[in-house]
Amino acid sequence: MLRILGKIQRLGIITEPLPEPDRAALEQVGEQLKARIGEIFGGSLAIREVDAGSCNGCELEIQALNNPYYGIERFGVHFVASPRHADLLLVTGPVSRHMEAALRRTYDATPEPKLVIAVGECGANGGEFGVNYASCGAVANVLPVDAVIRGCPPTPLSLMLGLLEAIGRRRVGAPGEKAD
Amino acid sequence: MSTDAWIGGLMESLSGAGATAEQAPGLSPARLIAIDPGAWGVLGEVAARHGCRWVAGWGEDMGESIRINACFEKAGAYLLARTAVPRAHPVLPSHTPVFPAADRPERHTQDLLGVSFSDHPDARRWTRHQAWKTSEHPLRRNFPVSGHPPEKTPPDHQYPFLLAQGSGVCEIPVGPVHAGIIEPGHFRFQAVGETVLNLEQRLGYVHKGIEKLAEGRDAEGLARLAGRISGDSTVAHAWAACMAMEKAGNITAPPRAAWLRALMCERERVANHLGDIGAMLNDIAFSFGFYHFARLREDWQRVSREAFGHRFMMDCIVPGGVAPDLPPRFIAAMRDEARALRKQIGKLMAIINDLPSVADRVRGAGVLKPEYARALGCVGYVGRASGMDSDVRRDAPYPPYDRLQVAVPVHHYGDVNARARTRLEEMAVSFDLIEALLAGLPAGPIRAPWPPPAADAEGLGLVEGWRGEILSFVRFGADGRIARFFARDPSWTTWPALELLIRDNIVPDFPLCNKSVNGSYSGHDL
Ligand code: SF4
Questions:
Q1: Does residue B342's CB lie within 6 angstroms of at least one atom of ligand 1?
Q2: Domain count, chain A
Q3: Whole-number Å distance between alpha carbons of B383 and B368
Q4: C-alpha of B394 from chain center
Q5: A106 C-alpha vs ligand 1 centroid, how far in Å?
Q6: What's the average model confidence in pLDDT over B358-386?
Q7: How far apart are CA B142 and CA B134, in angstroms?
Q8: In Å, what is the CA distance from B153 to each residue of A99, B156, B486?
Q9: How far is CA B172 from the centre of its chain?
Q10: Partners of B476 in beta bridges
Q11: Is A65 part of a structural domain of the chain?
């Protein structure tokens, strides 16, 4: 135990302020984010991540948001296990046809108001896979999408900025459209 | 080094079965044999008697007939057996009765090409859910890449899962959408109290039509696609695909490119092992370990990005070589980085190994018996933690590993602890390799010119990715475009192992056991 505490003390806090060029933008978006999360989501934003057909590259970068460098929970953002607890769906991948129904059901299980963000080139436009016998392509071909975060995969930093931006833009109380 | 003495013996046992050796330089290190379809089952029996591993199987619509391939390995020597069945009546004996490893791959071929394996013990569909009809076969030539999907694809239903009945047996369905930030798949547990009686997997949820999408692509397009078979193995898959294409075209990547490919591949191995060891510690609620390993992984990926321009080194391996060169300052920087990381891991493990609460969770959990690993042909750390002493880098070495010493850690107990230890030791081997690669990095060009390979040229790529052996096959059509591409991710060999190793463990240990194996859903579903 002492060694664990020693290690923790020696390493200190490595969570970083974001790089200089982005900092101004982030501060601004961060302020909006806090205000919006306060207004819409009662101070905490719960995200349900859905891999709807990804190559898993996007998942790795979303997971990285929880590593101590990015520590996204400090912005009041946390990932939840059930769509019933979620305010926002973060959807990756071209939507595979085999995941289409599961994705729609996840959307339907998410209470209003809700946001959908399509992540990655695949989520944005189908990426390398496009639309085919097994793939529906972009998330927007299946669900109403509020924002996209591009990149293959988007880096944790662009995920964070994209997330903050999408929420900052969101009109309060706008009812989500139905998927069907 | 490989020894192919057994292939002669196997050919002798097959005399009378119409087996003939064929010439196919692009398919080296595998030797190619053609065999009558009627003797396909005999081939399986003979290969099993010779103690071979069933590596992979795939088919191709050749017009009048459907060609079927099965690849075997023993002692680092590979044999590629090939037969053909008439398109009008595509029936073939199965290898599954003697090689359980052939089970799902044969069902994949059944679903995508419409070949039926007559004595397959379990002919349920596998990759197909509800996006195309039983009568449709996406890899047939007359099936358009766009298919004929319904307006909305219904969820899969009426898949005949195994049932367990009796007092106290309860069924726990999990997925496809899982609780964490992970890939989708379905697990059906039968449990008595907390103890798992049986687990059945249902995969195929992230099937994206990769094999079909490959058709008609040029070499660069295929490398990009292969780099997205499984994002965590983007380097290894792109390398395997490029190796296959290069062999088909008799093109050799320059030495510097080969060394840089290996440098990237070892970096990918270390990144994934770091991430997974952290995640295993997270699954036993030891968040100290999780955060430290996540930190180390992040540091490592940042250097990959600085050096090669991408955190996963995606699209860095291209046909004929590599896209980015390594800026000279990274020779010293990466060497120091590897040394520092080795030290950091040592310090952390000294703390972690000291904790009885960690040992209690990982020792004896999720035991994969060596005989099961052998029957399933498990590769990578899952196989090596259960006594399977194999590594393509050592056993069928490809440049630059033909010039390097690759130590292969092997354990025999097959539990979560053995898999974690194997992975820690593999990182140490990677650090040695990284130092050797940086020290010996040849000068010169990083990419060979790419004259399009001739129509019908075939190539085989075999690469030891971080999950284990990847097999990649290509056949070119006209204009340097791909006619057929097949990739066998190592996960095909380890997913079935998870079903066996979880038996008699408690349900709450599933995440830990699953993470210790960490099969790729995307790499499997294609
Ligand atoms: S955007 Fe790129 S990393 Fe993300 S799922 Fe698609 S191919 Fe993979």
A1: no
A2: 1
A3: 9
A4: 17
A5: 21
A6: 96
A7: 15
A8: 9, 9, 26
A9: 28
A10: B482
A11: yes
Q: Out of A51, A56, A152, A155, give the residue to mutate to test ligand 1, the one with the largest number of ligand atoms within 8 Å of its CB.
A: A152
Mean pLDDT of B399-422: 97
Q: Which residue among A7, A53, A132 sits closest to B351, beta carbon to beta carbon?
A: A7
Query: Distance between alpha carbon B515 and the CA centroid of its chain, in Å?
Result: 16
pLDDT at A173: 45
- Classified as helix, coil or strand, B309 is coil
Phi, psi of B193 (to 5 degrees): 60, -125
Give the integer Cα–Cα distance in Å for B41 and B43.
Answer: 5
Query: ipTM value of the model?
Result: 0.95
Q: Does the structure show a pLDDT above 70 at A22?
A: no
Confidence band (pLDDT; 50, 70, 90) for A29?
Answer: low
Residue A100: CATH number of its domain: 3.40.50.12280
The proportion of chain B whose per-residue pLDDT surpasses 70, expressed as a percent, equals: 100
B387 CA to centre of ligand 1 in angstroms = 35
Domain of A80, in residue numbers: 25-168
Instruction: Go through the domains of chain B in sequence order and give each one's CATH number.
Output: 3-117 (3.30.460.80), 210-512 (1.10.645.10)
The reply to whether A2 falls in a domain is no
What mean pLDDT do residues B295-321 have? 96
- Residue A87 domain-assigned (yes or no): yes
The protein residue with its alpha carbon nearest to ligand 1, atom 5, reads: A54
What residue of B is the nearest CA neighbor of A180? B152
Residues listed for chain A: 180
- What tokens were used for B379? 């590769």
Put simply, the chain A residues between 17 and 46 with a CB less than 8 A from any chain B CB are none
User: pTM, whole model, 2 decimals?
Assistant: 0.94
Ligand 1 neighbour A60 (Cβ under 6 A): no
With 0-12 CB in 10 A as exposed, 13-18 as middle and 19+ as buried, what is A12? exposed
pLDDT tens for each residue of B414-443? 999 999 999 999 999 999 999 999 999 999
Which residues partner with A115 through β-bridges? A88
* Chain-chain contact of A135 with B181 (C-beta, under 8 angstroms): no
> What does DSSP say about strands B195-202 and B186-192: parallel, antiparallel, or unpaired?
antiparallel
> For residues A150 and B278, what is the distance between their CA atoms, to the nearest angstrom?
28
Residue A55 Cβ contacting ligand 1 at under 6 Å: yes
In a domain, A98, yes or no: yes
Residues of chain B contacting residue A50, judged by C-beta atoms under 8 Å apart: 177
Q: Give the position, in ligand 1's atom list, of the atom nearest the Cα of A151.
A: 1
**Within an 8 Å CB–CB cutoff, is residue A155 touching chain B?**
yes
Closest approach of B152 to chain A, Cα-based (Å): 8
